[in-house]
Specification:
The chain is an alpha+beta fold. Helices cover 27% and strands 29% of the residues. The protein folds into four domains: 3-34 and 210-269, 2-Layer Sandwich (Nucleotidyltransferase, domain 5); 41-205, no CATH class; 276-385; 396-496, Ribonuclease E, catalytic domain (Hypothetical Protein Ychn, Chain: A, 3-Layer(aba) Sandwich). It has helices at residues 143-156, 174-197, 210-217, 231-241, 261-264, 268-272, 311-332, 349-363, 412-428, 440-448, 453-457; strands spanning 3-10, 13-20, 23-31, 41-50, 55-59, 66-69, 81-84, 97-104, 113-115, 120-121, 125-128, 133-136, 162-165, 203-205, 225-228, 252-254, 278-280, 286-291, 295-301, 337-342, 370-372, 380-385, 397-399, 408-410, 433-439, 464-470, 478-483, 495-496. Strands 4, 5, 6, 8, 9 and 14 form a six-stranded antiparallel β-sheet that branches. A six-stranded mixed β-sheet has the order 17-18-19-20-22-21, with helices on one face.
Length: 498
Amino acid sequence: MRKEWFFDRFCGAQIAVYAEDGKIVEAAFEEQGAHDLTGNIYKGRVCNVVPGMQAAFISCGLERNCYLPLAEGASRFSTYDGEGNAAEAISLKEGDEILVQIVKPPRGSKGAKVTCDLSFVGKNLIYLPQTDFLGISRKIVAEDARAALLKEAEKLRGGGDGFIIRTAAEGAGKRHLKIESEYLKRVWRSVQAAAASAAVGDVVYRECDLPFKVMRDSLGGGVTRIYVNDRALYEKVLSLARLRSDLGERKVELYEGKADMFRAFSLSEQLRTLLSRTVPLENGGYLVIDKAEAMTVIDVNTGKFVGGNDLESTVLEANLVAAREIARQVRLRNVGGIVAVDFIDMTDEAHRLAVNEALAEALSSDRAKCRVLPMGDVCVTLFTRKRTGAETTEFFFKPCPHCTRQGYVLSDMYMALRLRGDISALFADGYHAAIVDCARDLVKSILSARMFSEELSSVWKGKRVYLVPHADWNEEKYAVRGDNAPVLTLPDDAQILY
């Protein structure tokens, strides 16, 4: 099986896509200056303590105050096997200044959830400078390996701190664990030093950017190739790959083709399917995925699939195919929280159990923790998936300005991604000028954010891009054409890029 990662950078955004045999399994996006807040540490001030909720609300300089549970303690690490001293409720009063770390970013009208039990994540270890807890990943099952790793981690502890041994640590040498633990402790000391002079609302520690997190957490497991479409990003990924004994720089390749990388590897259309609430299945059936405030709802439909002569067997086959695709879609879209799946009705209890087991098995390969509940008589299954940052589709959409922001339209960043692919295709076909007709507001966004400035100074050097604004076009309408005429006839309001 080909296991390939694709990294790209454009218009201030970074993209990482993982594909198996050419089929996208994971996709992550990050805009410059808009990194996921999860993991960031802030110096905050207690605004309000609510004894009845055993919680406090902390001002951290964000749009809304953060929520801090006061008695959570080491229970936050209950997904790992381990032990530590039971934490007592934190004693706080209004006006206290404390360090807090974001564990869940703000969503909708809710502020971020924070903790005082700070953690610093490495490839093999998670360091807990203020939490007396020693834990290990449940995915490490060999008893001798677990015992050896826990013994080594115990040696690395100081007084009152702790470590969690991550799955990647299985097979790691003592020297690597020691070097990593010392590095994480240095990071903690630097945070303490920064906090001493920081003002309330200052970020004293910022979680790593997208390429670092992918290289730290996701790569490995037989990755065959890593393609990078940007020279500066290539150098960064290359330097990170050199730190991985299971990877190395030989697998990292700078993509230098004339066509857009995602189009060259047939990934663009797959990314575009993330925009649709309807997902076709390989057997002719389809899924309908809808996002609600409290959960994601997925409906399974037979569509064009007619199966054989036996209705119950036909329904079972359709549901089994759907279960596998559902696991792929929630991973691809990075869906978090509660997911409700309305499978096609089955009367046979054994068939309902088989579909539930197929869903659980398909979700088992997901890096995010998932828990599947038993299927009910009405063939609805609930499962939970741990939130790991923003959902992928948040990159593609923005609130619609025409319906009091209740609906969504394609984001300027995603429109720029599509435009870049179309313009690159024109230049690859031999055109020297590209004329883009699009909505007036999109033209303003492209010019104000200086989108495509890096492309024009590198891969598009010597080419010309003209923007023609249209006041009566909606945000998602555009047209791109090439021209090699020595003199172009364009409207008076057309603008050349930079």
